[in-house]
Amino acid sequence: MTDNSFFEEHKEQSVVKSIIVAKYFNVWSNVIINTQKRYPRRSQKIAYIDLFAGPGRYKDGTQSTPLKIITNAIGKRDLRERLIAIFNDKNEKNSKDLEKTIKEIPKIETLKYEPKVHNQEVGEKIVNMFERMNLVPTLFFIDPWGYKGLSLRLVNSVLKNWGCDAIFFFNYNRINMGINNEAVKEHMQALFGEKQATLLKNKLMEKNSCQRELIIIEELCQALKAYGSRYVLPFRFKNDKGNRTSHHLIFVSKHFRGYEIMKDIMARESTSDTQNVPSFEYNPADFLPQQTLLFQLSRPLDDLKKDLLETFKGQKLITMQNIYERHNVDKPYIKKNYKDVLRELYDEGSIEAIGPKGKPPKKGTFGDKIKVTFPD
Predict the structure, then answer these.
(1) Where is the GMT-like wHTH domain (predicted)?
(2) What are phi and psi of 318, to 5 degrees?
């Protein structure tokens, strides 16, 4: 079934999703290009691939992700010379509209490689093609309306080569309903793995809605990691009333640097935080003038302080950067949180700290190279 209602409205959630992808592409492409310049024998191309690209604009005329990516590339000389943009949509009208819209972008002719738009259904044939290919550094965006075409093999097929990251749309509502639906059993197995899909179905029995969501997202993240993609980062979107999860945006990378970049972007796009710890969530209800008791009682930085003292107990002369890299994966904290907490621990005398030149940390700061000694 083709459902174009996604593009008929210009919803704030869709804008945020597009912003996250476009921002990551911007920073990611800079990192990749700078590396390519240092190693000229490597391929000097980068790619952006979107297999469910849509018509290019929402019904109100606002640019969707493909146009933002191309417009960004046109404005940067290095990107103009390197970018290979490949778009696909199985809806023939969408693909034709996108192709027409791309040709109308000002200065589109300045791109060295003309963007390509295809009209194919995403399935076994495309997965097999990607599995056989050696890809240039690629940002891969998968944004299906439901779950058809989305699989672990598809995500893994583009993550095998250097510099390749993936971002995909995870329609939680449809997948939550599909797990117990025998008619879509094949799709659930493609997404979670055959054995894992069965185990997941059993785990969800008699669980409430909050428990189901946590279990489903955790199983998805673990399934992605089992394929060798170590860093997985979900960002949740709530519905307009803020009382139910609609979908997640899932980021997958083999490299900590990519994980760190995306974590910072998602943190900035979060609609709320507690003690400066971001929610990694877009919730329209967060804009309402209210604060729940649960929010008031939550003290995540206090939890981080206790966890650091326990995790690094007795360890000596560990840099702030090393503490951050070793501890933050799969946790909601960003780099600033670690600096703030370590500064507090130092000020209250709970840890020892020394700078690169043997001097104590400057007041109110805690640099990456500060070495920390934790008590036994």
Answers:
(1) 281-358
(2) -95, 130
Give the tokens for residue 155. Answer: 């995500």
Q: Does any domain span residue 293?
A: no
Count of domains in the chain? 2
pTM given for the model: 0.90
Where does a domain end: 221, 252, 287? 287
The token pair at 87 is 């778009």
Distance CA 103, CA 92 (A): 17
Which stretches of the chain drop beneath a pLDDT of 70? Answer: 1-10, 145-146, 229, 288-298
Same domain, 162 and 216: yes
Summarised one tens digit per residue, pLDDT across range 34-82 is: 999 999 888 899 999 999 998 888 777 788 899 999 999 999 999 999 9
8-state DSSP, 372: E
| Residue partners of 34: CB distance under 8 A and separation at least 6 | none
Nearest to 232 by CA among 280, 176, 171: 280
Half-sphere exposure (CA, 13 Å, Cβ side) for 31? 21
